[in-house]
């Protein structure tokens, strides 16, 4: 009986030692891994989002015509925000726009008493168009700006932490020369 007990005890000791060694070997690897994770988290915090954040702002003056509008829950708080597009072009008695070579456009999202100007500027020989969609469950506004030598596509998504809309330019080719535009 005694030799068997010694063998069993010996085997147990061996297993215990092996387990201890394994543990000490694993510790630095774990620490290294954790360090890497922390580093990448810090990097993400430094640069959490691409694009520009558009914060709420007081609008001094609105262009004369409300060109288009739509309501949608863009920040997913259960209430619709108002999306409004204004242009500084008059309308005739039939409601047709009197277009000039260029106009000031203002594109905003209104959320209660907050107004986010997604675009505020001059468009030469062109116009703004927008779409509202959901990508997965993320509500998104797409804005297309066409001008004399411009074709810019931008997306806007609401970001809770930044309390603003993240503007990302998706397409903005250089030296644009238009040859055709379909119906
Ligand atoms: Ca909302
Ligand atoms: Ca809201």
What's the number of domains?
2
Instruction: Briefly note the structural class of the backbone.
Output: alpha+beta
Largest sheet, in brief, is: 5 strands, antiparallel
CA-CA gap between termini: 97 Å
Using the alpha-carbon principal axes, give the shape: elongated
* Rounded radius of gyration (Å): 30 Å
Average pLDDT number: 86
Strands side by side in the biggest sheet: 1-9-8-7-6
**Distinct ligand kinds:** calcium ion
Q: What is the helix/strand order?
A: HEEEEEEEEE
Number of strands: 9
Beta-strand percent range: 35-45%
Helix fraction bin: 10-25%
| Alpha plus pi helix count | 1
Signal peptide: 1-18
Organism: Pseudoneobacillus rhizosphaerae
Protein name: Lipoprotein
Keywords: Signal
Describe the structure.
The chain is an alpha+beta fold. The chain folds into 2 domains: 1-48; 52-171, no CATH class. It has one helix at 2-46; strands at 52-55, 65-72, 81-87, 102-111, 114-124, 127-135, 138-147, 150-159, 164-171. It has a 5-stranded antiparallel beta sheet with strand order 1-9-8-7-6, with no helix packed on it. It has a 4-stranded antiparallel beta sheet with strand order 2-3-4-5, with no helix packed on it. A hairpin with a 2-residue loop joins strand 4 and strand 5 (114-124). The chain is elongated, with a radius of gyration of 30 Å. The termini are far apart. Bound molecules: calcium ion (2 copies). It comes from Pseudoneobacillus rhizosphaerae. Keywords: Signal. This is Lipoprotein. Residues 1-18 form the signal peptide.
């Amino acid at each position: 009986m005694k030799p068997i007990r010694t063998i069993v005890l010996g085997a147990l000791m061996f297993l215990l030692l092996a387990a201890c060694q394994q543990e000490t070997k694993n510790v630095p690897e774990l620490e290294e891994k954790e360090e890497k994770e922390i580093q990448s988290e810090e990097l993400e915090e430094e640069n959490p989002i691409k694009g520009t954040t558009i914060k709420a702002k007081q609008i001094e003056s609105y262009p004369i015509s409300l060109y288009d509008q739509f309501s949608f829950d863009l920040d997913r708080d259960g209430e619709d925000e108002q999306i409004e597009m204004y242009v500084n072009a008059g309308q005739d008695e039939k409601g047709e726009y009197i277009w000039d070579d260029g106009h000031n456009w203002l594109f905003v999202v209104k959320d209660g008493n907050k107004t986010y100007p997604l675009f505020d500027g001059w468009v030469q020989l062109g116009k703004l168009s927008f779409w509202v969609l959901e990508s997965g469950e993320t509500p998104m506004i797409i804005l297309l700006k066409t001008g004399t030598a411009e074709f810019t596509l931008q997306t806007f998504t609401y970001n809770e932490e930044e309390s603003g809309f993240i503007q990302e330019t998706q397409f903005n080719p250089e030296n644009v020369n238009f040859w055709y535009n379909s119906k």
